[in-house]
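Input (structure):
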C-alpha cells in the first residue's frame, strides 16, 4: 500500500488510515495471506491457463465442486475438439502448475477451526451450495472408457431384469400416443426404478419430443413394445403369472389412490390422452384407481397421473428403505 503522504492518495487520507487500521486486525491479515496462497493468485495464469482443462476440470476441482462434475479434457479430445487460429482457447494447459495445485486450504479445513473466520464463511457457503443441487450423470463419465462400461452394465441389467420379473412395477402406456407424454413417463419410470415401460411402438423413442422430455431415460430402463391390439393377451398372461392389474382411470367403481395398497407385482395401465382406457379393458383389471381431484378440470394429464401413481407405488415399496432412518 502507498504511503499516506503520497499526493495521489492524500485526498483519500481518511479511507487510507481506515484501511491500515483494518489490516492490522489479526484475522484480516491472516485472511489476506491465505487468499494470496489461493491458486487464483499463486499459480493460475489467465493466458497460459486459458483452456478447456482449466474451465471444466481444474476450476471445479480447485473450488471444491463435487468430482462428479469435473470433465476431463480427454472427453473434448474424444469429441474431436479442434484448435482455432482465430481463438486462443487450448485443450490442455501448456504447463502443469495449475494441475499440481491443491484445493485452497480455506475450502478444505474443518469447520471446527474458527467459526468466525472468513475461511469458514466461505466453506459454509460452498457446503450450502452442495445442498442446493447435486448432479450426477454416470453416462458422462470423466474417463471416456467408462461410457463403454456403462453400456455393458446396462445390457446385463436389461438381461437380468427380463429374466427375473419376480416383482416390481410395470407401467403400460400402449394407449398413449403423444411423444412428450411418453418421454416424461419414461423419465419418471427411470427415476423411481420402474421394472419396465410398455409402449405401443418403439419408434416413439427416436422422436425428438420424446427425447426432450426423457433426457436419456430410455437408455436406462426396459422399454417393451406391445401394440394396443396385443395388449389383452399380454395382460392375461401377466395376470396368470400372478401380477395385479391396475387401471388408472376415473370410473364409477374406482378406488381412491390414497387408499390403495399396491401389490409388489403390479401392472399399471394408463389411458389414452383423449379417450382414456377402452371400456372393454376395464373388466380385466383387479381394480381401477382414481387420483382424487378438487378443481373443476375433469382430468389430469396422463404423464402427471403416471407420476403420481408411480410415486405412490414407490413410497410403498421401492423407496421404503429410504424412509427408515
Ligand atoms: C386426460 S385423461 C383421458 C380423458 C378422460 N377420460 C376424460 O374424459 O377427460 C388421460 C388418462 O389420464 C389418466 N387420468 C387422468 N386423470 C386421472 C385421475 N384423476 N385419476 C386416475 N387417472 C387419471 C387416466 O389414465 C386417463 O385415461
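Output (sequence):
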Amino acid at each position: 500500500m502507498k504511503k499516506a503522504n503520497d499526493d495521489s492518495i492524500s485526498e483519500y487520507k481518511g479511507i487510507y488510515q481506515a484501511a491500515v487500521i483494518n489490516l492490522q486486525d489479526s484475522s484480516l491479515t491472516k485472511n489476506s495471506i491465505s487468499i494470496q496462497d489461493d491458486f487464483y493468485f499463486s499459480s493460475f495464469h489467465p493466458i497460459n491457463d486459458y483452456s478447456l482443462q482449466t474451465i471444466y476440470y481444474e476450476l471445479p476441482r480447485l473450488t471444491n465442486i463435487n468430482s462428479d462434475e469435473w470433465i476431463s479434457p480427454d472427453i473434448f479430445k474424444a469429441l474431436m475438439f479442434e484448435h482455432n487460429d482465430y481463438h486462443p482457447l487450448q485443450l490442455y494447459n501448456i504447463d502443469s502448475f495449475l494441475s499440481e495445485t491443491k484445493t485452497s486450504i480455506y475450502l478444505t479445513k474443518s469447520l471446527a477451526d474458527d467459526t468466525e473466520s472468513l475461511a469458514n464463511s466461505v466453506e459454509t457457503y460452498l457446503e450450502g451450495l452442495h445442498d442446493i443441487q447435486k448432479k450426477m450423470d454416470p453416462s458422462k463419465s470423466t474417463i471416456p472408457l467408462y461410457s463403454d462400461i456403462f453400456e455393458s452394465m446396462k445390457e446385463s441389467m436389461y438381461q437380468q431384469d427380463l429374466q427375473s420379473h419376480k416383482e416390481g412395477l410395470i407401467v403400460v402406456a400402449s394407449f398413449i400416443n403423444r411423444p412428450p407424454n411418453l418421454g416424461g413417463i419414461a423419465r419418471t419410470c427411470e427415476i423411481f426404478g420402474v421394472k419396465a415401460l410398455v409402449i405401443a411402438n418403439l419408434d416413439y423413442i427416436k422422436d425428438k419430443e420424446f427425447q426432450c422430455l426423457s433426457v436419456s431415460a430410455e437408455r436406462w430402463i426396459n422399454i417393451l413394445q406391445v401394440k394396443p391390439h396385443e395388449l389383452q393377451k399380454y395382460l392375461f398372461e401377466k395376470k396368470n403369472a400372478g401380477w395385479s392389474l391396475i387401471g388408472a382411470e376415473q370410473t364409477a367403481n374406482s378406488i381412491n389412490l390414497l387408499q390403495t395398497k399396491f401389490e409388489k407385482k403390479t401392472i399399471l395401465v394408463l389411458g389414452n390422452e383423449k379417450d382414456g382406457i377402452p371400456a372393454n379393458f376395464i373388466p380385466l383389471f383387479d381394480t381401477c384407481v382414481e387420483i382424487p381431484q378438487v378443481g373443476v378440470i375433469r382430468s389430469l394429464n396422463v404423464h402427471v397421473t403416471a407420476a403420481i401413481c408411480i410415486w405412490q407405488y414407490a413410497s410403498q415399496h421401492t423407496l421404503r428403505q429410504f424412509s427408515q432412518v
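Notes: Residues 156-323 form a domain with the Alpha/beta knot fold (CATH 3.40.1280.10). The beta strands are 168-172, 196-199, 222-225, 244-248, 255-256, 265-269, 287-290.
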